[in-house]
């Protein structure tokens, strides 16, 4: 099985360039530029580009809201300054690797059950170079590796309004390879979960926790801290008689995520979560009667029935137990249906 780079072209590596292929076919004439009828004197083949280095980078919602500059130290390979990427001393000549025949790779056979498949792998003798220098001829600085390590401070900017899946690219900052243009470092942004806000495109949503008294009687206070540190203050009710209900949604225009390269913003949606009093809340009967008088009366018509049973209830039930009350493990209904169906068939 030949090499396959995922691009639909078996046998071609990810860095293969069309000019290189044509140069090999037409004897180094730079594609078709050196052939009669195809333009003037052949141009040199375009240098290949070394592979990009891609990595995931986690960012907070605050980073994406405000934008952020990140500086970090990086160690990468650069062309050896002493031998200029040759790998050997000035007048030394590299020897062709006899193991791979100067190809830099060799064919490897792998057994999969009764079948043998072939693939290519870098030659371990010449480190995939196709040639090597004898120990005495190697460059003293890079030891024949053609590159040396260099430490460098890099900086990336995460723009305001960026989102999950966006990428930030540092062009030409990947490892350097002889006779190739350096590739890029690509950071793929991964948005971490936020304890307060949730994001959908340019919009934000958050829970608005209020007490029952606030839902009925109103409030004026800072309800949450925004991603840039500002407090968001709400005053309720907007008009007398307005109340807030559980699950009600309040929309605050222009307080969502910023759009890239724009002053426009999305919207903020607050989902009302009314916190009712717990079991320890026990006002006097007189207070409860007064509360009943103040609150609206039920407009539901009474339910009439010939027989009425007064029942008890459990106030701490779990809805996850719904449907699990069959003492026979939930299979009783199916068994009854099967028995009834069998009896019906028998009478036909």
From TrEMBL:
Biased composition, class Acidic residues, residue ranges: 306-319
Gene3D superfamilies found in the cross-reference section: Heat shock protein DnaJ, cysteine-rich domain (2.10.230.10), Urease metallochaperone UreE, N-terminal domain (2.60.260.20)
Ranges of residues in domain CR-type: 67-151
Top-rank taxon, per record: Eukaryota
Coiled coil residues, start to end: none
Claim: Repeat is one of the keywords in the record: yes
GO BP of this protein: protein folding
InterPro entries linked to this entry: DnaJ_C (IPR002939), DNJA1/2-like (IPR044713), HSP40/DnaJ_pept-bd (IPR008971), HSP_DnaJ_Cys-rich_dom (IPR001305), HSP_DnaJ_Cys-rich_dom_sf (IPR036410)
Start-end of CR-type zinc fingers: 67-151
Protein's UniProt keywords contain Ribosomal protein: no
Stretches with biased composition (Gly residues): 33-43
Alphabetized GO MF terms: Hsp70 protein binding; unfolded protein binding; zinc ion binding
Record keywords, A-Z: Chaperone, Metal-binding, Repeat, Zinc, Zinc-finger
SUPFAM superfamilies: DnaJ/Hsp40 cysteine-rich domain, HSP40/DnaJ peptide-binding domain
Region (Disordered): 33-55, 296-348
Name of the protein in its database record: CR-type domain-containing protein
Organism expressing this protein natively: Talaromyces atroroseus
């Amino acid at each position: 099985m030949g090499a396959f780079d995922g691009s639909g072209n078996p046998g071609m590596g990810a860095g293969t360039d069309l000019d290189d292929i044509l140069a090999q076919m037409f004897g180094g004439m730079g594609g078709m530029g050196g052939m009669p009828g195809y333009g003037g004197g052949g141009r040199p083949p375009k240098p290949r580009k070394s592979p990009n280095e891609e990595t995931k980078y986690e960012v907070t919602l605050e980073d994406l809201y405000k934008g952020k500059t990140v500086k970090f130290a990086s160690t990468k390979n650069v062309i050896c300054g002493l031998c200029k990427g040759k790998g050997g001393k000035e007048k030394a000549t590299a020897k062709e690797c006899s193991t791979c025949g100067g190809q830099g790779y060799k064919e490897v056979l792998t057994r999969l059950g009764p079948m043998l498949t072939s693939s290519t792998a870098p030659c371990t003798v010449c480190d995939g170079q196709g040639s090597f220098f004898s120990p005495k001829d190697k460059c003293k600085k890079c030891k024949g590796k053609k590159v040396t390590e260099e430490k460098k401070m890099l900086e990336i900017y995460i723009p305001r309004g960026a989102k999950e899946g966006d990428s930030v690219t540092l062009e030409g900052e990947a490892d350097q390879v002889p006779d190739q243009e350096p590739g890029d470092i690509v950071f793929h942004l991964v948005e971490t979960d936020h304890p307060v806000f949730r994001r959908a495109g340019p919009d934000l949503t958050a829970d608005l926790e209020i007490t029952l008294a606030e839902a009925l009687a109103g409030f004026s206070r800072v309800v949450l801290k925004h991603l840039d540190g500002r407090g968001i203050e709400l005053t309720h009710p907007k008009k007398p008689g307005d109340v807030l209900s559980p699950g009600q949604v309040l929309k605050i225009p222009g307080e969502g995520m910023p759009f890239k390269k724009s002053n426009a913003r999305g919207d903020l949606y607050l989902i009302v979560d009314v916190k009712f009093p717990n079991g320890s809340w026990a006002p006097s009967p007189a207070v409860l009667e007064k509360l009943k008088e103040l609150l609206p009366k039920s407009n539901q018509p009474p339910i009439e029935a010939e027989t009425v049973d007064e029942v008890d209830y459990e106030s701490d039930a779990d809805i996850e137990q719904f449907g699990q009350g069959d003492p026979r493990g939930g299979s009783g209904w199916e068994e009854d249906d099967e028995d009834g169906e069998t009896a019906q068939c028998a009478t036909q």
